[in-house]
Amino acid sequence: MIQRIQTIWLLLVSACAFISLKLPFYSGFADTPSQFELLNGASHFWLLLVTVIIGVLALFTIFDYKTRVRQLRLCALGILLEGLLLFLYYHYSTVFTTGTYSLAAVLQAGVMLFFVLAIRGIQKDNKLVKESDRLR
């Protein structure tokens, strides 16, 4: 389990997801110009829910190493959930009158990238198992 490269990628996915609960994605002034606000993963219920689901899904996928097909499907589901999360961040950031994206917004791109790299690692494992079965 730990010697597989996708374990590292999935650990990085969950770390980025849980770190994004505290670090801001967007910061600026909301409806009232005197109120500076931060938009992070814990700002709204739906952001919190989807972020936690992505982090837990990545951790669950690590321990589901015996069924590689299910791992592939869970990683694809994680990518879809990350797309939903980015849409929710965009939706909640339109409330701000002025503001800017934070440097921590890169974490969300990292989640997507690490899921893709995990899928590549799982596919390489599938290919290796099929080749070894063919040699028997």
Write structural notes for this entry.
The chain is mainly alpha-helical. It has one domain. The chain contains four helices and three strands. The chain has helices spanning 5-19, 45-62, 68-93, 106-135; strands at 26-29, 36-39, 98-101. It has a three-stranded antiparallel sheet, covered by helices on one side. A hairpin with a 6-residue loop joins strand 1 and strand 2 (36-39). Helix 1 (5-19) packs antiparallel against helix 2, helix 1 (5-19) runs antiparallel to helix 4 (106-135) and helix 2 (45-62) packs antiparallel against helix 3. The longest helix is centred in the C-terminal third of the chain and has 30 residues, at 106-135. It is elongated, with a radius of gyration of 18 Å. The two termini are 24 Å apart.
